[in-house]
Amino acid sequence: MVDIFERIENNMGPLGQYADEAEGYYIFPELEGELSNRMKFHGKEVIVWSINNYLGLANDSKVREIDANFALRYGTAYPMGSRMMSGNTALHSQLEQELSSFVHKKEAVLLNFGYQGIMSAIDCLLSRRDVVVYDAGCHACIVDGVRLHSGKRFVYKHNDMESLEKQLQTAIEIAGEYGGGVLVISEGVFGMRGDQGKLKEICDLKKKYSFRFLVDDAHGFGTLGHDGSGAGVEQGVQNEIDLYFATFAKALGSIGAFIAGDPSAVKFIKYNMRSQIFAKSLPSMIVGGALERLRMIVKSTSRKDKLWENVNRLQSGLKEAGFDIGNTNSCVTPVYMHGSVQEAMIMVKDLRDNYAIFCSIVVYPVIPKGMILLRLIPTAVHTFDDIDTTIKAFSAVKSKLENEEYKVTITS
Ligand SMILES: Cc1ncc(COP(=O)(O)O)c(C=O)c1O
After folding, report:
1. In the CATH scheme, what is the code of domain 61-299?
2. What distance in angstroms lies between residue 122's CA and the mean position of ligand 1's atoms?
3. Are 345 and 213 in contact (CB under 8 A)?
4. What is the CB neighbour count within 10 angstroms for residue 25?
5. What confidence score (pLDDT) does residue 368 get?
6. What are 246-261's pLDDT values in tens digits?
7. Residue 192 Cβ < 6 Å to ligand 1
8. I need a surface site. Which of 7, 88, 145, 346 has the fewest CB within 10 A?
9. Using CA atoms in the order 99, 100, 103, 104, what is the torsion angle rounded to 10 degrees?
10. Would you kindly state where each structural domain of the chain is located, as residue ranges?
11. Which atom of ligand 1 is nearest to the CA of 257?
C-alpha cells in the first residue's frame, strides 16, 4: 500500500519534475498585454508566435466591443443548467444552424469545450462492439476519448495509409465478428507538425471498406478551404466526412466548440453526450460572440487572405534561409533543428531574452531524441517586419547552435 499523495510528491510527472526551475519561464510563462503579434514577457516586448489567434479575431476592437455588449446583456451565468434541462436558447440554435451551413453539413451541435466535447462524442458514439482506428499523431483529447471506449481500438502510423489499411482490415474483421461498426479518426491539421491529415486518401478507402469517419479540424477551421471552412473543403472531401469537429478556441479566438454531420448522427450525439447533458450550457455571452465572429468570416475572407500572405512569407523565407520546416501544408510552421534538450532550452532563452522572439519549443519525447522543434503560429495580425526579424533571429541562433555555443560545459 502506498499513500497516493506521498507517491505524487516523489514523482511530479514528466513536466512537473522541472516545475521549480522552469515554471514561469518555459512552463506556464506569463504573457501580458493585449493578445496580438507583440506582447510583454518578463516586462519586455516580444514578437509572439505561440497563440492560435489565426485570424486576429481574439483582440479585434470590434469583436471586443461585441463581446462586451453580450456580457452586459447576459452576464456570464445565462442560461443556467444544462441545455437539455433549462439552459437552451434560440441563440444557441441559431449558432448551430449557421455553423452547419458554413461547414457544409446538415446539422451541428454546440460543445462547451473542445477537449471534453470530442472526448465525449467519441465515447457516446461507440458501443463496446465497435472498433475505433485512429492516427498515432492525434491530440490528447482524441486519445482520451478512445480510452473511454470499452471495445477494441487500433492506432495507425501517423498519416501512413498502408498502416491505416492494415489496421482497418483487422478492425473490420473484428467488428464483423462482434456485430459492431468501425470509426476512423484523423485530424484535419496535425497541430505540432502542421501536416494535414490525409482526408482524401482516407475517404477513398471508403470505396473499399465500410467505416464512418470523424475529423478533428481544430487548426483547419477558419484557415483552410476557399471559404475558410476547413481541411475537408480544402481537400474536396467535406461531403464524405461523416462527423466534422472544430473548436472556437483557435481561429475564432474564443472558447467552445461544435460537431457537425447528418441529422440523425447529430441528434444522437445531442441526446447522449454525457459531457453536455450533465454540464452547464455554453454561456450566451460566448455563443453570441461566436455567432458574430462566424458572420465576420463568412462575409469576408480578407483575414484568411492576410493570414496566408504571412504564412507564405514566413514559410518561404525560412526555407530560403536554409531551415527545415518539414512537410507542413497548413499555417502551423515547425522549424526543426538538431540538438539536445539542454541546448534547446538555452537557445529558447537566448531567443526570448536577446532577440525578443517568443515561440513554443517541443523536444523529446514528443519528437525524436536529438531533435528540436520550434513551433511558429503565424496570424493575420503579424507584420512582414515581425516575419523578417524572426527569420534573421532564427538564423543567428541556428549558427550559435551549430557552433556549439549552447553546449553546457560542466566545471567542477
Ligand atoms: C486537435 C485539437 N483538438 C481539440 C483541442 C481542444 O480544443 P479546446 O482548446 O477548445 O478545448 C485542441 C486544442 O489544442 C486541438 O489542438
Report:
1. 3.40.640.10
2. 14
3. no
4. 16
5. 87
6. 999 999 999 999 999 9
7. no
8. 7
9. -150
10. 33-54+302-402, 61-299
11. 10
For domain 33-54+302-402, the CATH architecture is Alpha-Beta Complex (3.90)
Lookup result for grid cell 470530442: 118
CB of 115 sitting under 6 A from ligand 1? yes
Atom of ligand 1 nearest to the CA of 52: 14
pLDDT in tens, 127-180: 999 999 999 999 999 999 999 999 999 999 999 999 999 999 999 999 999 999
Report the C-alpha gap between 78 and 49 in whole angstroms.
34
Q: Is 217 in the pocket of ligand 1 (CB under 6 A)?
A: no
Ligand 1 centroid – CA 410 distance (Å): 40
Residue 3, C-beta contacts closer than 8 angstroms, at least 6 positions apart: none
Q: Which three cell numbers stand for residue 346?
A: 538555452
Q: How close is the Cα of 31 to the center of ligand 1, in Å?
A: 20
The answer to whether 348 and 398 are in contact (CB under 8 A) is no
> Which atom of ligand 1 sits closest to the CA of residue 142?
3
Output the CA angle 133-139-142, nearest 5 degrees: 45
> 247 CB under 6 A from ligand 1?
yes
Residue 287: pLDDT above 70? yes
Q: Is the pTM of this model over 0.85?
A: yes
Cα 137 to chain centroid distance, Å, stands at 12
pLDDT by residue (tens digit) across 90-135? 999 999 999 999 999 999 999 999 999 999 999 999 999 999 999 9
- pLDDT higher than threshold 70 for residue 409: no
pLDDT tens-digit map of 193-211: 999 999 999 999 999 999 9
What SS3 class is residue 244? Answer: strand
